[in-house]
């Protein structure tokens, strides 16, 4: 899992399908997915935005659809400590009005949850209803390695 995620983050597309296949069973059929975008710089370096690519593949497996409702306006979280990550807010802009029922956020890895909370907050402030989020892996607190997929749902 770790090798596949790192390869994807280096720009290898071969693992996108298998990683997205882990997300499909976590989503309801017909789910509306909102990828959590990376920075334009990281997407350009890699040649693609991993959350967008994962969301497209996961949506196809669940007869769902993608809505590109988020725009990244802040800096990447990479290299930031836990406190810095959690303090960062307002990194997303929502340029489109709600056009769907509940949506699911899609991202590759969750470390502290700060990015997902920030993205969900931006969507909610713009009138969207966020059902939850799916991620391929979670970084355990204090470690750099990833563990198996997870589903985060807010009550």
Radius of gyration: 14 Å
| Outline type | globular
Main-sheet strand order equals 2-1-5-6-7
CATH architecture: 3-Layer(aba) Sandwich
Q: Report the end-to-end length measured between terminal Cα atoms.
A: 29 Å
Unreliable residue stretches: 144-155
Strand content: 15-25%
CATH first level: Alpha Beta
What share of the residues lie within helices?
A: 25-40%
The arrangement of helices and strands along the chain is HHEHHEEHEEHEE
Based on secondary structure, the structural category is alpha/beta
Overall pLDDT level: 84
CATH topology: Rossmann fold
Number of helices: 6
What summary fits the major beta sheet? 5 strands, mixed
Number of domains: 1
How many strands appear in the DSSP assignment?
A: 7
Descriptive report:
The structure is a single chain. The protein has 155 residues and is an alpha/beta fold. It has one domain (2-152): Rossmann fold (3-Layer(aba) Sandwich). It has helices at 2-9, 16-23, 40-46, 50-61, 82-87, 114-125, and strands at 32-35, 65-66, 71-72, 92-93, 103-110, 130-138, 150-152. The longest helix is centred in the middle third of the chain and has 12 residues, at 50-61.
List strands and helices in order, with pairings:
Blueprint: H1 2-9, H2 16-23, E1 32-35, H3 40-46, H4 50-61, E2 65-66, E3 71-72, H5 82-87, E4 92-93, E5 103-110, H6 114-125, E6 130-138, E7 150-152
Parallel strand pairs: 1-2, 1-5, 5-6
Antiparallel strand pairs: 3-4, 6-7
Helix pairs in contact: 2-4
In a few lines, what is going on in this structure?
With 155 residues, the protein is of the alpha/beta class. The protein is 34% helix and 19% strand.
């Amino acid at each position: 899992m770790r090798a596949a995620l790192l390869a994807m983050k280096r720009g290898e597309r071969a693992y996108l399908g298998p990683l997205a296949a882990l997300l499909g069973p976590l989503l309801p059929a017909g789910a509306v997915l909102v990828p959590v975008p990376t920075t334009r710089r990281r997407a350009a370096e890699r040649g693609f935005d991993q959350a967008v690519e994962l969301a497209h593949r996961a949506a196809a497996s669940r007869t769902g659809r993608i809505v590109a409702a988020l725009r990244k306006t802040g800096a990447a979280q990479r290299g930031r400590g836990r406190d810095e990550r959690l303090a960062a807010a307002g990194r997303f802009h929502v340029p489109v009005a709600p056009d769907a029922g509940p949506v699911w956020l899609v991202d590759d890895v969750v470390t502290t949850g700060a990015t997902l909370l920030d993205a969900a907050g931006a969507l909610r402030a713009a009138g969207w209803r966020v059902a939850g989020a799916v991620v391929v892996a979670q970084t355990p607190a204090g470690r750099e390695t990833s563990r198996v997929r997870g589903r985060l749902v807010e009550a």
